[in-house]
Amino acid sequence: MLNFDFYNPTRILFGKGRIADLPKVVPAGARVLVLYGGGSIKANGVYDEVMAALSGFAVQEFAGIEPNPTYETLMQAVEQVRREKLDFLLAVGGGSVIDGTKFVAAAACFEGDPAAILDKRGRNITDALPFGSVLTLPATGSEMNEGSVVTRKSIKAKTAFSSPLVFPKFSVLDPTKTYTLPLRQVGNGVVDAFAHIMEQYMTYPVNAPVQDRFAEGLLLTLIEEGPKVLANPEDYDVRANIMWCATLALNGLIGAGVPQDWATHMVGHELTALFGLDHAQTLAIVLPNMLRVRKESKRAKLLQYASRVWNITEGNEDARIEQAIDRTQAFFEQMGVKTRLADYQLGADSIDAVLKHLESHRMVSLGEQRDVTLEVSRKVLELAV
Amino acid sequence: MLNFDFYNPTRILFGKGRIADLPKVVPAGARVLVLYGGGSIKANGVYDEVMAALSGFAVQEFAGIEPNPTYETLMQAVEQVRREKLDFLLAVGGGSVIDGTKFVAAAACFEGDPAAILDKRGRNITDALPFGSVLTLPATGSEMNEGSVVTRKSIKAKTAFSSPLVFPKFSVLDPTKTYTLPLRQVGNGVVDAFAHIMEQYMTYPVNAPVQDRFAEGLLLTLIEEGPKVLANPEDYDVRANIMWCATLALNGLIGAGVPQDWATHMVGHELTALFGLDHAQTLAIVLPNMLRVRKESKRAKLLQYASRVWNITEGNEDARIEQAIDRTQAFFEQMGVKTRLADYQLGADSIDAVLKHLESHRMVSLGEQRDVTLEVSRKVLELAV
After folding, report:
1. Distance set, CA B209 to CA B254, B257, B302 (Å)
2. Do the chains contact at B241 and A1, CB–CB below 8 Å?
3. In this structure, are residues A130 and A105 in contact, taking their beta carbons and an 8 Å threshold?
4. Is A15's CB within 8 Å of B7's CB?
């Protein structure tokens, strides 16, 4: 096992009806900005429930945080926070709204141009407004971690930043609030969580059996529950299990003490920034082929994955590995997320654009062994055409 | 899945050499009281390492916290804290030292007689001194939770209390510091962690596959690594895996959203309070027989446990359950912890004394179904003679 620090102070309020508990966790007397995305929380009743719970507080709202939240939009919220002297933020939505709120929380307290937060990937954050979240889309894990990804439209760049100062103080996870999600977002969410787990699990062995088994437990649960949620969108337990899986997939626990990869995410971010694909779509395209190209350096864990997650024990090693990767890709397709560039009307010519962006963002030695060069990324994308 | 709150703000510093990082996590300018037990930390170098790391701080010490820490001893530390105006505590030792430090932290800030903290099981704690720990014995999980057990010698009672105010601010987990532990304590620690997991796992199904798999992952790891540590006390990875297992066994995670039992612990506490048995010894005596007596209400989970943890899939249900319980008991014996009352020179006459104590402590309807009456506890102990 590698040395590690683990720290995660976010309080989780999990279960049916928990939005009503907001007054117990929002500080008394807070001047609250409720941030959200489009109109879905108004259509499904979450907005009304949140506002009813906050009736004892001074509340303003900021609507219109987009999927892949942009610096340009978020700076309008920063302006509102400063102008109106708001002192607590409440993100109501999915990972994009929570990621965006993290940026607003840090930017509102930042001296100088908050774009520097992205340039320095959060290392220069010294203060942030406290905030909580009401999660409506299980996927990114942002509700219980210190990370965020923000897009600058001006330079077509998706930039991740992190800071312990942007852990949510609390997150409300009510599985019933996910019943009305479009199936596309449900499938995306499962694929996103699955990929998060793989980035922390599918590397090389360091004798960390607890972390391995936790990761495998989450993967197995997503594989079991994912198809059920498409078939029965209002099955409470299925929704609850997926929601808790997605949170635990990226709250720091399964990645503590083990190597981590994240090359799939870095390549995927460029596909979103360049062509507007959903985040999970990019992961579904890149991940299976990333595993194929890097089969040798990941051999031991791929064999473990084949056996423990897919119960593949017959055939020679290469056949078992291939089968495990094929089944991973088929699972993404089963969740309704297409896995080829052509499915998104992208041809081989898109690859050069991605590589150029990777190079300009200095993403030239990715992965747990730092051996995912531009040439390796090219091979991965070529397999995905 | 049941509704739940999860909150755990303790920072973990895990790995070789991490004691040197104390100055990064002890507040600057703190007046520190270092609390410890007997002399083992002086013999194995931990004391010197801690004191060297704290050379920039005003440091006092309090030695002599006993296994099953007593109110009577701890109140002397409270007196020292108040007299010397100390403002940060550092527990250096195992669960008993950390449990004791939690009491000192709360008692030092308590108005009135701190015995009331035990009477109210911590619900009346409104403030506590901040504290951290350097863990030397993986077992109780106290290093990353809000619970503590303190013994009052005057009334022969072990009382558990808890409060979110007594989470350690940080805990340093350096597996190399456990190399010199006596084998008895190593075995006790593994049994203790195992029992903690079982108290949260071995109840009835609530469709919580993630919690089940996490619990099973920890159990499997303890079963694999436990015998290895007895054979090779200085195997770093084995020590690290056991240490992380013991912490995760009782940090709130695997118990979130599922029913919990704890009847074994309640009966075990009386055996320690009356006869001075090690905590883990009482668990090894009680747990297998608690499972035998309550086989019907735990049937579904016992079958799952037999299959997933012990790989027992042949034979009828009752045979599989019996085999799983037998193997559990054999594992405790393998770890050097005896599982019968007679092994500790206790006869059938001890049972009445335990039952009388359970009754006087109102422990008359224990377990996840509140159906562990005194009569059930009697049957359990009678099987353990």
Report:
1. 11, 11, 15
2. yes
3. yes
4. no
Q: Answer whether A105's CB lies under 8 Å from A149's CB.
A: no
> Is A99 in contact with A70 (CB distance < 8 Å)?
no
Query: Using CA atoms, how far apart are residues A32 and A131, in angstroms rounded to an integer?
Result: 9
Q: How far is the C-alpha of A286 from the C-alpha of A262, rounded, in Å?
A: 11
CB nearest B5 (choices: A8, A11, A224): A11
Which residues in B lie closer than 8 A to residue A244 (C-beta atoms)? Answer: 1, 210, 257
Homologous superfamily of the B183-383 domain (CATH): Dehydroquinate synthase-like - alpha domain (1.20.1090.10)
> pTM of the prediction?
0.97
- Å between B298 CA and nearest CA of chain A: 21
| Domain spans in chain A, listed from the N-terminal domain onward | 11-177, 183-383
Pairing of strands A11-14, A170-173: parallel
- Its ipTM equals 0.97
Over residues A56-72, the pLDDT tens digits come to 999 999 999 999 899 99
User: Is residue A42 very low, low, confident or very high in pLDDT (cuts 50, 70, 90)?
Assistant: very high
Which residues of A lie inside 8 Å of B (Cβ-Cβ)? Answer: 1-18, 207-210, 213-214, 216-218, 220-221, 224-225, 237, 240-241, 244-245, 248, 253, 256-257
Residues in chain B with CB shorter than 8 Å from the CB of A209 are 217, 220-221, 224-225, 241
Q: Which of A1, A4, A244 sits opposite B210 (nearest CB)?
A: A244
Q: What is the pLDDT, as a whole number, of residue A62?
A: 98
User: How far is the C-alpha of A149 from the C-alpha of B309, rounded, in Å?
Assistant: 40
Tokens linked to A16: 């049916």
Q: Do A4 and B18 touch (CB under 8 A)?
A: no
Q: Say which CATH architecture domain B11-177 belongs to.
A: 3-Layer(aba) Sandwich (3.40)
List all residues 6 or more positions away from B69 whose beta carbon is below 8 Å from its beta carbon.
Answer: B96, B97, B99, B100, B103, B150, B151
Token pair recorded at residue B226: 């436990």
pLDDT tens digits along A181-214: 999 999 999 999 999 999 999 999 999 999 999 9
Task: State residue A159 phi and psi, 5-degree precision.
Answer: -120, 130
**Other residues' Cβ atoms within 10 Å of the Cβ of residue B230:** 15
Phi/psi region, residue A93 (left: phi>0; alpha: psi -120 to 50; beta: rest), is: left
Chain B positions touching A256 (Cβ under 8 A) are 12, 14
> What count of CB pairs under 8 Å joins A to B?
120
The alpha helices in chain A, defined as continuous H runs, are: 22-25, 40-43, 46-53, 71-84, 95-107, 115-119, 183-201, 209-231, 236-248, 263-275, 279-293, 299-308, 317-334, 349-360, 374-383
Please say whether the beta carbons of B210 and B308 come within 8 A.
no
Q: CB under 8 Å to B114, separation ≥6 — which residues?
A: B71, B75, B78, B103, B106, B107
Which candidate, A151, A111, A149, A259, places its Cα nearest to that of A199? A259
Determine whether the interchain pair A210/B5 forms a contact, defined as Cβ–Cβ distance below 8 Å.
no
| Under 8 Å between Cβ of B94 and B37 | yes
Give the C-alpha separation, A6 to A210, whole Å. 15
For residue B294, the 8-state DSSP code is T
